[in-house]
Amino acid sequence: MAILKFRAYWEDDDSIYRDVAIRHSQTFTDLHSIILKSYEFDNKHKATFYRSNDHWLRGREISLEKYADKQYKAEPLIMSETLIGSEVKDPNQKFVYVYDSRLAEVEEKYDLNSEALSDGFSEEGEDGEREDSTEEATTDEGNDGF
Predict the structure, then answer these.
(1) Does domain 3-99+136-142 have CATH number 3.40.50.300?
(2) CB of 36 within 8 A of CB of 45?
(3) Domain extents for the chain?
(4) What tens digit of pLDDT does each residue of 83-127 get?
(5) What pTM was estimated for this model as a whole?
(6) How far apart are CA 62 and CA 76, in angstroms?
(7) β-strands 94-99, 134-142: how paired?
(8) Going by C-beta distance under 8 Å and a sequence separation of 6 or more, which residues neighbour residue 18?
(9) Which of 4, 7, 11, 70 has the most CB atoms lying inside 10 A of its own CB?
């Protein structure tokens, strides 16, 4: 049984990443859940994977569901129906992972104004949930965990 290793990078800072391992027979819903847990995100937002190339151009979409408010060039694959192994075309296969959130909510929650940033602290605590916008994931195919 093949174990696939993915590294999920934070879009704006590639020094923030999570390494995850998943079986090739698991679905993209499983990978989505693993990424959410690894960054301590909730599951209240839309999420989509895109098959990608080395230049992070978005290809075939793999979505949680078919969203009525979105225009599609091609019908998306559904995460719960799509096995990870079926979409990994080579050992360095890349995916773009988009998790819908709003930066304004983060700024407001943590009071990210110029005064707070200048001294590194805000008056409010930091006990809330973190939000994310886009992740980039690559895979290394192997037979062992890490």
Answers:
(1) no
(2) no
(3) 3-99+136-142
(4) 999 999 888 899 999 987 743 344 444 444 444 444 444 455 545
(5) 0.67
(6) 6
(7) antiparallel
(8) 7, 8, 35, 38, 39
(9) 4
